[in-house]
Design goal:
The protein has helices at 2-11, 17-29, 33-56, 63-88, 94-101, 107-113, 118-136, 149-173, 179-201, 245-249, 267-275, 291-297, 317-322, 345-354, 397-427, 459-462, 479-483, 495-502; strands at residues 219-226, 254-257, 259-261, 301-306, 327-330, 360-366, 431-437, 442-443, 450-451, 466-470, 489-491, 527-528, 532-533. It folds into 2 domains: 2-191, no CATH class; 217-536, Alkaline Phosphatase, subunit A, CATH 3.40.720.10. The protein is 45% helix and 10% strand. The strands form 4 sheets. The chain has a 7-stranded mixed beta sheet, with helices on both faces. A two-stranded parallel ribbon has the order 3-11. It starts with a helix and ends with a strand. Helix 2 (17-29) packs antiparallel against helix 3. The structure holds zinc ion. The site of zinc ion (ZN) has 5 residues, from loops.
């Protein structure tokens, strides 16, 4: 009986290969040592469970298939774990998984587009090597004696016991290290969080807003939510290229806020804080409400125009928030990998502006902006920048190429913003336009990296444009007063208060000191990633 048990385990010895890779590669990439130890023990237990289960099927017809499946799973988890450590210097976390689940927001593609480099490709190949050998291997004719019934049962009990104990230990001590376990539990959390958001924020009104006041006269307001646009690449913010030729011509009519950041660098987490009362002090308020709901309650007709694909695996958070509007238009049906131009919003805007003139309206526009892949964000006529970008820190082909594509996209965005303002201007109504981006992108500005993720969380990922335009009829304090506010340090997580002030909406809990344009504005710590003081990091 003994030899047979060991033969079964021995036959599946190559299942321990991914663990060896984790041990060796992990030794160089996982710090501190305690983390490394936990990762290794956690992976050992998972390997033990997989080997036991695989050995159960020894001598059955299913043996080879199960062995290969077990190996693939272990190799896959080893790859994900190690490549995450190699790329970001930390283990894969619940928040990373959360973003990955939100695949329709296209954020996962950013992870993936930056995932493959020489090291990770080598790792993948290395982990696949035993598989080729295994697929070719033929099982030898039975040479061992056939075990009797008792021996078979005993062996099965032993293997099941080992698997059971391993899983028990993983559940008890190594939950966070175990990718399958962490994924399942995070996914459950994610679904609950999503459902709660839907129940609360997809409704036209919210109990978060009481004693709502607003003026009755005609007003037309537009809030534009940009995408992946860093203030580092805007001419209006001092960038050394003509990326804002159009807005520059009306520069004197704009209020350009110089020092604004987003509380997160991913759309889903950032937009939730920017458009709702949730902020880093109170990230999960029991009663939360969005500015779309507030606008509804203040008697405005509300519109949500989106140029981002609304539904993927699950509805994205911006879609949930937008669906509180009385009228929604989703213009894009493809994801980020396809050509999507923001000019698609202009005819819709024309139509909405003509609808019921002299009424109270607020139009929210969610652009595709300058989201990766940059070359798919603008028509050929905007393929403008081809030479070496100014002050490029990383002088390699990809950096030059991507910076040029990004700057083209920023320049196209400039023309869209200009067109929107022109349309509002022609209305001759009491209007404002508020524009900001949900977060920025690192485009080789401070590190050799493209895109955005919170592990790196570089300045260009957090620092975003925030620009206002006001119509002649919009009654604002003397130009000189608001113009002096442009150096204020602001985090967009307090945007609901700026929004309420600008729209002349009052509500219980409105805090003028959180509005960037109020005289009582208070400079407060700007918290990013829930707990980090941006200005002290
Ligand atoms: Zn985004």
């Amino acid at each position: 009986m003994r030899p047979i048990f060991f033969t079964a385990v021995f036959k599946n010895l190559w299942l321990w290969f991914p663990l060896c890779v984790v041990m060796i590669a992990g030794y160089f990439s996982i710090q501190p040592l305690a983390y490394y130890g936990k990762e290794v023990i956690g992976f050992t237990l998972m390997t033990l469970a997989a080997t036991s289960i695989t050995s159960l099927f020894y001598r059955t017809a299913l043996a080879k298939g199960i062995a290969i499946a077990s190996y693939l799973l272990l190799a896959f988890f080893a790859f994900v774990k190690l490549s995450f450590y190699l790329q970001y210097g930390v283990g894969i976390s619940a928040s990373a998984l959360f973003v990955i689940f939100e695949t329709n927001a296209g954020e996962a593609s950013d992870y993936l587009s930056n995932y493959f480099n020489t090291t990770t490709i080598f790792l993948a190949i290395l982990l696949l090597v035993p598989l080729f050998w295994l697929l070719k291997a033929k099982r030898k004719r039975k040479i061992e004696r056939t075990p009797n019934k008792i021996q078979t049962i005993f062996r099965a009990a032993l293997l099941i016991g080992i698997a059971f104990i391993s899983v028990f230990l993983i559940r008890k001590y190594f939950r966070t290290q175990n990718i399958p376990y962490a994924t399942i539990s995070t996914f459950k959390e994610y679904k609950i969080a999503k459902q709660q958001l839907k129940d609360k924020l997809a409704q036209p009104t919210s109990p978060a807003f009481t004693e709502v006041t607003s003026q009755a006269d005609p007003q037309t307001y537009v809030v534009v939510i940009g995408e992946s646009t860093s203030s580092w690449h805007l001419q209006l913010y001092g960038y050394g290229r003509e990326t804002n030729p159009k807005l520059t011509t009306i520069k004197n009519d704009l209020l350009v806020m110089d020092n604004v950041i987003s509380p997160h660098v991913h759309t889903i987490t950032a937009v939730e804080k920017i458009l709702t009362l949730a902020d880093s002090e109170n990230s999960k308020p029991s009663v939360n409400g969005s500015i779309i709901q507030l606008a509804n309650q203040a008697g405005f007709t509300t519109y949500w125009i989106s140029n981002q694909k609304p539904v993927g695996l699950y509805e994205s958070i911006p879609t949930i928030l937008g669906s509180a509007a009385q009228h929604t238009r989703f213009l894009a049906t493809d994801d980020y990998n396809y050509q999507i131009y923001d000019e698609a919003v202009l005819p819709v805007l024309d139509e909405l502006l003509q609808e019921e003139t002299h009424a109270k309206k607020i139009i929210f526009i969610h652009l595709i902006g300058t989201h990766l892949r940059y070359e798919k964000r603008y028509p050929e006529t905007f393929n403008m920048f081809k030479d070496n970008p100014p002050h490029l820190k990383f002088q390699h082909k990809k950096a030059i190429e991507q910076t040029n594509l990004y700057d083209n996209a920023v320049r196209y965005n400039d023309s869209i913003m200009y067109e929107i303002i022109q349309r509002l201007d022609q209305q001759k109504e009491r209007s404002y336009l508020a524009y900001f981006a949900d977060h920025g992108d690192e485009v080789y500005d401070t590190m050799d990296f493209l895109g955005h993720n919170e592990y790196h969380g570089t300045a260009p990922m957090f620092e975003v444009p925030m620009i206002f335009w006001f119509s002649e009829a919009y009654k604002k304090p003397s130009d000189s007063l608001w113009a002096t506010y442009n150096k204020r340090k602001y985090s967009l997580e307090h945007f609901p208060h700026t929004f309420a002030q600008l729209s002349g909406i009052g509500f219980r809990g409105f805090d003028a000191s959180k509005s960037i344009l109020d005289s009582s504005f208070v400079d407060r710590p700007r918290i990013v990633k829930d707990t980090v003081d941006y200005d002290k990091r």
